Amino acid sequence: MSAIINNLNWRYATKKFDATRKISDQDLETIKEAIRLSASSYGLQPYKILIVETPELRAKLQPVAWGQSQIVDASHLIIFANQTNFGDNGIDSYAQNIVETRGIPAESIQGYVDFMKSKISTLPLESRNHWTSKQTYIALANLLNAAAELKIDATPMEGFDAEQVNEVLGLDKLGLNASTIATLGYRHEEDATQHFKKVRKSNEELFINL
Fold it and tell me: Where's the Nitroreductase domain (predicted)?
């Protein structure tokens, strides 16, 4: 069996973390790089990643995340926040990054820039915000796979009040919205969930060959 399949069989949504164990700086940097290299639509990466380590701040977040213990017990709390009202400015910033990274004239990609603006900036605000939110889940998947490779436990979480998380962290003022959360660390030996068999659909039920 390939390493990636072994990793995916090993990982699970950890319910109880060992609060005494912390992720090394080196492993955290690897996970951050996996997130940074994630695919995104057009390559725009219309989001920010918040790494919340301050205990006091995490204690404030726990009540608005359904009181879940992972918020305070995990080694690291990662919040994926999509940009709200993403449009021309974000696209122009990305275009400048392309020009500087690849050493090409801006004129050579102007057609691509105009195309992106025609497809994104013209969308209603709600649709654009929904689209940027979806992009965070691709980055989240990279985090889960990288963590499993490092034998670091990770729990993806949607169980939180986004508006209240935004308020606690002041995300509204930054043009951001808490889209999804991941907690990182190491499973507690008392976490019974680690012994449960993984439940997934069969190939026959999940896949359709055309």
Answer: 9-176
